[in-house]
Design a protein that fits this description.
The chain is mainly alpha-helical. It has a single domain, classed as ABC transporter involved in vitamin B12 uptake, BtuC (Orthogonal Bundle), CATH 1.10.3470. It has 11 helices and 2 strands. The protein is globular and about 55 Å long.
Length: 303
């Protein structure tokens, strides 16, 4: 195994970890596995694509690449807009579907099955609007820079790695240093007791949806920038996201990011040693192993 395999794994793992942070956040607050989370990744990528295309149409200067990256200012601006739009989409889905089920006392398994239905609806709607043809944020090819002997990465890859760590660190500070963060941790521990002591549980739920969807959108933009965007990209990432969230420990933001790096490195090593056809199986093996050996995850607490 060479250093390039490690670099490729870190880049993929940062993207997985960022999406897994959203999974662990919504799970710890809402108490169910949201299988529509992968579709939020896809919608975030396409929201950014649509906004970036619109900005480029209004001003061609915004699409001129920013040296040394492959994209212009239209993409960073579109990424911020996409995070807000994806958060709004998540809040709409919650108001239309999950919120109503919660108000009727829906069991967690009912919420999980509803999330499957929401995922199918969101995925097919996305494909209906944008078709199944892959799209790209930028058409130009980047030359990987030599960072060390046997180690190369493109500027886009290094930027994506930095953005993922920055967003995860910002969320960790939000959860540990702010009033809304303390409220979210209280609801995560005991929603009923948190409501009794004056925490606005409904507000916390809305914030959890918005933050989780925003991070999913960021992961989608990173995935689209490094590879391509397509309606099924979120579905393809769903198993690695859940594997990382469970491996890191539900509710642990640093754990989710760390576990995402582990999953990404494992996939990269598997591709290097056995071939690309084994990539999809790595996340499944990790998921089964952690459920059998340490169900609470690396950073989680046993209940």
């Amino acid at each position: 195994m060479n250093a390039q395999v490690v670099m490729d794994g870190l880049i993929a793992g940062a993207m997985i970890g960022l999406g897994a942070v959203g999974v662990t956040l919504t799970y710890s607050i809402l108490r169910f596995a949201n299988f529509a989370h992968g579709e939020l990744v896809s919608w975030g990528a396409y929201f950014a694509f649509a906004v970036s295309s619109a900005l480029g149409f209004l001003s061609g200067a915004l699409t001129q690449p920013i040296d040394p990256f492959s994209f212009g200012w239209s993409l960073p601006l579109a990424a911020l807009a996409a995070m807000a739009l994806t958060a709004a989409l998540a809040l709409i889905v919650d108001a239309v579907l999950f919120g109503r089920l919660r108000s009727m006392g829906g069991a967690p398994i009912v919420m999980v099955m509803a999330s499957f239905g929401a995922a199918l609806a969101l995925r097919n709607l996305l494909e209906f609007i944008f078709t199944s043809r892959p799209d790209y944020y930028a058409q130009g090819l980047q030359i990987a820079m030599r960072l060390a002997p046997g180690l190369r990465a493109t500027p886009d890859q290094l930027l994506s790695l930095g953005v993922a760590f920055f967003l995860a660190a910002a969320l960790h500070l939000l959860l540990t240093r702010t009033a809304i963060g303390r409220a979210m941790r209280a609801v995560s521990e005991n929603p009923a007791l948190a409501g009794v002591v004056g925490v606005d549980v409904r507000k916390v739920v809305r914030v959890a949806w918005a933050l989780g969807a925003g991070l999913a959108s960021a992961a989608g933009v990173i995935a689209g920038l490094l590879v391509q965007i397509r309606p099924t990209m979120g579905l393809d990432l769903l198993l690695p996201l859940f594997a990382a969230a469970i491996l890191g420990g539900i509710g642990s933001v640093p754990g989710a990011l760390t576990a995402g790096l582990i999953v990404g490195l494992s996939e990269s090593i598997a591709v290097h040693l056995a071939g690309a056809q084994w990539r999809a199986g790595v996340a499944f093996v990790i998921l089964v192993a952690i459920l059998l050996i340490r169900p609470q995850g690396l950073f989680g607490r046993s209940q």
